[in-house]
Every structure is written in structure tokens, then in C-alpha cells.
Amino acid sequence: MAQYDIDVLLERLRALSDPEYAAFNARLVPCDVASTLGVRTPALRSIAREIQRNEDWRAFLDASRAHPLHDLRMLHAFVLGGARCWIDEKLAGIEAFLPCMDNWEVCDGLCSSFKPRANEQEAAFAYCLACADAEEEFRKRFGLVMLMSRFADPPFAEGTLRAYRRFRHDGYYARMGAAWGLATLWLHQRDGALAILREGLWDDFTHNKAIQKLCESYRVSDEDKALARSLRRGRAKRT
After folding, report:
1. CA nearest to 181, candidates 215, 123, 141, 221
2. How far apart are CA 187 and CA 162, in angstroms?
3. Is residue 166 exposed (0-12), middle (13-18) or buried (19+ Cβ within 10 Å)?
4. By CB atoms within 10 Å of each CB, which of 117, 134, 212, 220 scores lowest?
């Protein structure tokens, strides 16, 4: 496989950099401001499509996987998620990338780009279940977000709910992923999501954060929001 000239791509990214956005994004992600150029997501997605169509995307993935620049890791996530290849190769690429993942934006960027086709769903579902049960924070978040976004409906819904019922983790971004996921699952599997809250299966932070996310949704009825608020714990229940 030919080597990918990452320096040429870096020059292109520098030309698209936005220092003010870089500083803002470094606080939001968070990451070291020195490790991000502030290239905006639409531009990165556009470049990702070019790489997938016109370049040796496998060589790009090899060159960018562990690069310290946040923008390149985002680009890696978009290229990998949308690459046209067999599911075994896709999952192997994800497996290689997950240990390099150190923030929620890269994690969620990969999830948003990975859309398993009908004949790939069984394999992808099994892999995401294993990730949701993992100990590593961003591997777990990846599994939870994928299950919520791609496997919330039958025939996978019950397995997804069981994975959420098993959730236990101390990491902030894993817990935020679980809370966001449960609030979204409420729209697909209301009774199952409600049971998780009623049974008190999670720690107080994740439990209350899921209720907050649910109450912020425009797609949840006022009645269901009132029901969710009644299940808040501790001081949060009295607000």
C-alpha cells in the first residue's frame, strides 16, 4: 500500500483553520487548543468524501489514526465511518481506532458516519453490544451511542435496552452518553426506558442527567416530562 502524504493534507487543513473556533471548540470538547486548527465540521465532511472517492482511503487511515491533531482525528472518524468496505474490515478499523479516541466529539463523529447496511446489522449490533459492556470510557460511549442511534427499533430494541440496563461506569463522558441515549430511546421504547428510571438501576448523576435530557426534548410530551421529573433523586427531585 502506498504511503499517504499527510503533510499535503495538513497544509489544506491549516488553510481552512479558524483560530476563534479552535479556541471555542477546545473548551467544548475539551482538548488542548494547540492540538486543534478549528476546521469546521462541514469542511471536514466534504474532505472526507473526497478521500473516500478519490484517494487511497486505507493509506489515509493508517497515516491519521494516532495523529495528535484533533481535526485529523475527526477526519479519520468521518472517513472510517463512511468507507465502502466489507463489515469485517470496517469493524477492524474501528477496533484499531477506539484506543486512540480521547474525546466525545471524535466518538460521536464516528457514530454519526457509521450506518450499517441491512446485511451488516447483525455483526455491527454484536460489536456495539460488546463495546457497551467494555470498561474503556470512549469504547463504552461508542457502543451506547451506536445502539441508541442505529439499533433502537425491533428486532434489536430488546438487546439495546438490556445493554442500557447493565450500564455502570464512573467516567463523565460514558455517563453522559448513557443519559443522552436513554432520553433518545424514550422516543422509540418508552416503556423500557421508563422501567430503567423507575427501577433505579443507575447512579444518581446518570439517572438525573437522563431525566434532564428527556425534559429538554421537544419530542417528549408535557405529561411524560412531568412523569420523568417525579422520578428525580435527591435535591434534584425538589427543583
Report:
1. 141
2. 17
3. exposed
4. 117
Nearest-angstrom CA–CA distance, 61 and 97: 9
Selection from 104, 127, 100 nearest residue 116 by Cα = 127
Asked if omega into 155 is within 30° of 0 (cis), the reply is yes
Rounded to the nearest angstrom, the gap between the alpha carbon of residue 62 and the centroid of all alpha carbons in its chain is: 21
Over residues 80-112, the pLDDT tens digits come to 999 999 999 999 999 999 999 999 999 999 999
210, 182 Cβ separation under 8 angstroms: yes
Single pTM value for the model: 0.93
Phi, psi (degrees; rounded to nearest 5) at 2: -65, 150
Cell of 181: 441515549
- The model's pLDDT over 132-188, given as tens digits with 9 standing for 90+, comes to 999 999 999 999 999 999 999 999 999 999 999 999 999 999 999 999 999 999 999
Domain spans of the chain?
1-115, 125-239
Task: Using alpha carbons, select from 106, 192, 90, 196 the residue that is nearest to residue 145.
Answer: 106
The torsion of the CA quartet 148, 82, 11, 62, rounded to 10 degrees, works out to: 100
- b/e per residue 87-101 (b: at least 16 CB within 10 A): beebbebbeebbeeb
